[in-house]
Amino acid sequence: MPAAGRGERLGPGAPKALRELGGVPLLVHAVRALARSRAVGLVVVAAPADGVAEVVGLLDSHGLDGKDVRVVAGGATRQESVRLGLAAIPADVEIVLVHDAARPLVPVEVVDAVAAAVRAGAEAVVPAVPLADTVKRVEPNRGGPEPVLDTPDRATLRAVQTPQGFRRETLAEVHEKALTEEAAGGLPPVTDDAGLVERFGGRVVVVPGHEEAFKVTRPLDLVLAEAVLARRRASDGY
After folding, report:
1. Has residue 1 got a pLDDT over 90?
2. Do 205 and 197 meet the contact criterion of CB atoms below 8 Å apart?
3. What are the extents of the domains in the chain?
4. For the CA atoms of 37, 71, 217, 104, what is the dihedral angle to 10 degrees?
5. Any bridge partners for residue 22, and if so which?
């Protein structure tokens, strides 16, 4: 779980993963979401390099269902944090999930479905949901009108979520290749790990995601997350 980012779009304050949702940090919610899955035996959190002790204390102060939770120093980029977290996973672990700390409310059935798809033979799996809005591809022009290039068929598009699941060897291999590319001044980092698998010719498959697995990026997302959490607590003591 990469959790070393600042999350400036949420506004000034603590790192995004440490912002509170219902009185509990987003990171704790996200770790709990993974820990609820019987498929998950270990959670590795890549924390800000100067905040490892703080994150360890934070997680220790919130019960996490007896799951093994480890904290390592993350990197300057999401890609580097995932690579550092992967290095902390025991060698005998064959399936790895990568989950955004900013998706605190992912239902356990999504976690289970991703893990099951990898176990069934997929090398890379992403949960995703259909798009509700029509999408336009544009020529970027920051601050000004942007010419529309075309309108992709919405039926072929999906909004990707996490956790994303991988065969351990596949994920390690594409991260090693990406590191080599970066050192040679090659392509820039991708925004998700499935993108690395695609970049190097691997096959990624999609399983159904969930509308409550949205990413908390802006203040309005936090308001929505509070509403979802309040409903859950009222209905099932979440």
Report:
1. yes
2. no
3. 8-236
4. 20
5. none
Position 109, amino acid: E
**Among all chains, which residue has been given the structure tokens 């304050």?**
13
> 78-87 and 168-183 helices cross at what angle (nearest 10)?
130
**Contact in structure between 124 and 165 (CB atoms under 8 Å):** yes
Residue 89 in tokens = 């996973």
**Range from 7-11, 27-31, 32-36, 59-63 carrying the lowest mean pLDDT:** 7-11
Identify which of 208, 187, 188, 200 has the alpha carbon closest to the alpha carbon of residue 116.
208
Alpha-carbon gap, residue 213 to 105, rounded angstroms: 6
Selected from 3.40.50.1820, 3.10.20.440, 3.90.550.10, 3.40.50.10800, the CATH number assigned to the domain covering 8-236 reads 3.90.550.10
Residue with tokens 């033979």: 121
**Whole-prediction pTM value?**
0.91
**pLDDT score, position 182:** 78
| Alpha-carbon gap, residue 52 to 45, rounded angstroms | 9
Amino acid identity at 139? E
